C-alpha cells in the first residue's frame, strides 16, 4: 500500500509540477490548430529547428480551458493556426454562422486576450481575403496602389471574410503582443485539397484575376522567425507581386501535368454559381523580408518541387476526361 501510495503521489506531483524550461536558445511553442493543414506544417518546421511544440487541446471558445492550458504548459510563444474556413469552400460558412463565430471570432479573441494579459507573444495565421479592388486600389495598379497593413478591410461579400475583417479590427488593440499574418490563397508543394492550385485545377472553369498569394514553402519558416523575434503587428503574408489564375495553371501545366487544360469565365458568371463572393486583391508585402522570391519565381519553383514530390510518390496525371 505504501509503495502504491508513493507511486501515485509522485505521479500526481510530476503532473502538477511546472515543465522544465526549453533548451537554451530554443522555444516552447503552444500550437492551436494541430489537426489543420498549416498547423501540421508548423509542427514539423518548429521541431526540425529543435524547438519544442506542445499541441493545444483546449477549444479556443472555452476561455477557462485555454487559460488553464497556457498556465500549465508555460510556453515561450503561442501559435494560432486554428480556424474555420468551410468544406469544401467558404460557402459553407454562409450556413454555419454560429460555428464560424465561435472559432474565428470568440476563440481568436480569447487567445489574443489571454496572451496579452500574460505578456506572451502570439502569432495568428489569419487571412488577407478581407479586401477587394476598388478605386483607390485598382486592378492592375501594382505595388503603388496595393493594400498595406494600415488599410482596413473593405470586402464583406462572404460571411467568412466579413467576420475576419471585424476580428482584425478588434485585434489591433493587442498588437503589442500579437502578430497577425494575412495569408492569401495558400499554395503548397503537393496536391493537398487545401492547396489553392489543387482547388482551381479541379474547377470546371476559373476566373482570371491577378491576386497576391502565399507560397507556404517560402513563408511559413519566416512566420516562426517573426515569432521567435517577437516582431508584433500586422503583416501582409504573401510573396511579392500578383499572379493570375491562368498564370498559376500555366506553371502547373508546364511542370506537373503537360496535358492539363482549363477554361475561363467572368466574375459575374462565377457569382451566379456561388453562395458567397470571392475576394480579389493585391497586398503590399514590403514590410516582410525583402529577400523573399516574387510570386512568379516562387510559383515556378513550387511547381518544380511539386513535380519532384509527385514523382517520388509514383503519381501520374490522370488522362483527360476521366
Describe the structure.
The longest helix is centred in the first third of the chain and has 21 residues. The termini are far apart. Helix 2 packs across helix 7 and helix 3 crosses helix 4. With 322 residues, this protein is an alpha/beta fold. The chain has a six-stranded parallel β-sheet, sandwiched between helices. The chain has a domain of 218 residues: Rossmann fold, CATH 3.40.50. It comes from Aureococcus anophagefferens (Harmful bloom alga).
Structural class, from helix and strand content? alpha/beta
Strands, total number: 6
Order of helices and strands: HEHEHEHEHEHHEHHH
CATH class of one domain: Alpha Beta
Ranges with pLDDT <50 over ≥5 residues?
11-15
**Overall average residue pLDDT:** 90
Q: Alpha-carbon distance between the termini?
A: 68 Å
Could you give the order of strands across the largest sheet? 2-1-3-4-5-6
Helix fraction, binned, reads 40-55%
Looking at the structure, the CATH topology of one domain is Rossmann fold
User: What Rg is obtained from the alpha carbons, in whole angstroms?
Assistant: 21 Å
Number of helices: 10
Overall 3D shape: globular
Quaternary state of this entry equals: single chain
Q: Strand portion, in percent?
A: 5-15%
Characterize the main sheet: 6 strands, parallel
CATH superfamily of one domain: NAD(P)-binding Rossmann-like Domain
What is the correct CATH architecture of one domain?
3-Layer(aba) Sandwich
